[in-house]
Protein: Reverse transcriptase domain-containing protein
Amino acid sequence: MVVSEAKTRVWEEFGEAMEKDYRTASGKFLQTVRHLRRQEPEAEDSEVDSFITQAEVTEVVQQLLVGKAPGVDEIHPEYLKSLDVVGLSWLTRLCNIAWRSGTVPLDWATGVVVPLFKKGDRRYGVRGPLLIAVRSLYNRSRSLVRIASCKSDLFPVHVGLRQGCPLSLVLFIVFMDRISRRSQGLEGVRFGDHRISSLIFADDVVLLAPSSLDLSLECFAAECEAAGMRVSTSKSEAMVLDRKKVACTLQVGVEVLPQVEEFKYLGVLFTSEGRMDREIDRRIGAAAAVMRSMYRSVVVKKELSQKAKLSIYQSIYVPTLTYELWVMTERVRSRIQAAEMSFLCRVAGRSLRDRVRSSVTWEELGVEPLLLHIERGQLRWLGHLFWMPLGRLPGEVFRACPTGKTQDTLERLCLSAGLGTPRGPSGRAGGSVWGEGGLGIPT
Structure:
């Protein structure tokens, strides 16, 4: 008990020091919100006389996810979902008191930190009671550290977003959008009529530019500083997309970013040569590792039914092997099928040495060929791109750049599915910009 309390005190001191870190950035969040607020003209506030209805509260409560950790008040989502009409009316009344007074209960502004160890428009329409409600969550924000059943004393939080709060996701998106808009210039890589200067997914950011001189890295880092954030130089790298090796020196402040030949973004390995061979090798290797880990406990386990083995195959092995969509050469197709049959043959009680045709194994087990499964996924994504509204970035990039093997693969897929050949604006197959054709691609 004494050791546990000592650990809790240490974590409390660490949490408080972490919150006070980053160059005494106390109040950065509210300063930025006030700055955004000053940028827009004050309008007549129609929200003052509004109130939260019980129907709105009921709808939100029904959407709560079960199994989530409670706050300091120990109220689990399951408790709220089990409320009857009377309970929901009291909850609605509490929400309206907080809405009209601009002050939330202190427990709502208290976070619980559980240490986990592991490897063009600037106006957002936030004003009046809504801005006051958001501000009240951060005016008295506090946290405590919980280890098992022990809780530390409360300490104030002045920096960052509230952990576990649904509003934090929205606020983070607002800040990243603000940083992206303010750091954009004329730089970027041209795709058709569009220039793309950054790709952002949560806090994973890729900055694009035709040269190191055009990259707005310093501007991006400065905007992050202004918003109370900073670029993690230990997790940032520079890479040049070129068949030849080109030196590129990038730095954030005094920190020089290492130049690499490959890096992983959103689970996909990109190389400086722009080829996908290494990524496909990695996926096949990951699938092989999955099969090795399940070999005795699943693949060849006689006590496990064939149906259960195929269910595990579909839910674990196939997603690992087919994550991301590739333009596949015949060599890659052969390797994918070999990886598929190495699992299915053992489920069927055979080995690859038995030289049984793949079609016999598919028919015997009642499974769809993996290559056909991949092609279905490619066609599904192709359909989304074709009918994506004009202006959506994935569709615009696709319309500008289906050339070479990508175009040949798409034409083969469309022909095999009986959809005809996509045609360019001139009426002939192909073209650098695809227009109205066999699949009705909007121009």
